[in-house]
User: Fold this.
Amino acid sequence: MPELPEVESQLDYLRSNALGRAIQKVSVFEPRIIKNSTASSFRKALTGRRLVAASRRGKYLIVNTDARRVLVLHFGMGGDLRYYPSPQQRPRFTRIEFILDNGYRLAFTCPRNICRVMSVSSPSDVPGLRQMGPEPLCKEFTLGVFKTLIGTGTSRAIKALLMDQKRIAGIGNIYADQILFESGVRPTRKTSDLDATEIGRLYRSIRRVLKDALPTAGEEALPSHYIYSRDFSGQGCPGCGRPFEKTRVGGRTTRYCTGCQR
DNA sequence: CCTATAGCCTGACGGC
DNA sequence: TGCCGTCAGGCTATAG
Assistant:
């Protein structure tokens, strides 16, 4: 579930705790999550490197080092970073642990091993990053850009398109449902059938939902007004009170209101 | 090229 | 109590 807002909060966490530090040691507890190299070459590439800058692109976290080495993290679902002083505090599901030059440790956790970690010479070595669509919160992401982007979207369901990282960066299942709800558009609608009004509402919802989520994305729970939260706690649509319809779109569980979304 | 689907992976949860 | 099946989600690979 770490989508754009959650990864942004992981970025803040990394910046305030580990940036500027050098990696003294790398412990790999789950080699499978390292995607482009063996565990030993991963360790070798990063040991001794200093973490000098960090950024986010879509759902990826990118950490530049003082050498021509970039650490790329993808959280899959449910993973996070943790910073702690001793191995006794090592979190459950720690897949990789970095011991830093102040003795503190940085863990990359991932409950389901769907996360990925890479050490590359450039972010563009990662296919998912190379092909990534525009950042929805950048000012370059205008209504015109969005129109062009979905104009070529043809017959797919709009929700599948919103979650397609090659089209737009950083939107996953939870935020896609919320964006569609706030737009009053059914997730199953074919993209090519949307009119200009609906496209405008979608565009504004993308920006608003993601931006509003940033301040609280580091917290455990989603905001209680989210349709995901409301459905989970047995509440219905905040607009009309109907229970949410549950279906599958783009291979994902999808919640929407049959009354308020057309 | 475009779109849809299976598979990866394992914890949480419900049913028996 | 504990086993078992199902579901969840990101992405990638493969099929159509």
